[in-house]
Amino acid sequence: MLLITLSQVIGYLISIIIVLVICQFVLSLLISFNVVNMQNNFVAALWKAINALLDPMLNPVRRIMPNTGAIDFSPLVLIVGLNVLNIVVTNLAYSSM
Fold first, then answer.
1. Residue 19, number of CB atoms within 10 A of its CB
2. Three-point CA angle 86, 22, 75, nearest 5°
3. 62-88 pLDDT, tens per residue?
4. What confidence score (pLDDT) does residue 70 get?
5. Residue 31's pLDDT band (cuts 50, 70, 90)
6. To the nearest 5 percent, what fractions of the chain are helix, strand and coil?
């Protein structure tokens, strides 16, 4: 029973990280198309906070992946990897019952 609860907590944390990756993607699009301005203190603080949380997870993925130019596929790889991790942890928790 404890392993199932632990897998649910890990799944919840993975969901939070995935939402942060999506927020970073949307905010980067808004910044690049000049919808929001980095001169705004709130936008700059939000951008720095999201990058400070995600860069430790994205940098190892960026080192492994080849350079694709202007398109960064590391958030997509991180989301897929986190979903695979969630499936593995959940299956391990339920198989131990």
1. 10
2. 70
3. 999 998 888 889 999 999 999 999 999
4. 83
5. very high
6. 80, 0, 20
Sign of CA dihedral 68, 73, 74, 78: negative
CA distance 21 to 27: 10
Q: Look up residue 34 and give its DSSP letter.
A: T
pLDDT band at residue 40 using 50, 70 and 90 as cut-offs: very high
- Provide, rounded to the nearest whole percent, the portion of the chain with pLDDT above 90: 89
Q: Are 2 and 92 in contact (CB under 8 A)?
A: no
Contact partners, residue 38, CB within 8 Å, separation at least 6: 31, 44, 47
Contact in structure between 3 and 95 (CB atoms under 8 Å): no
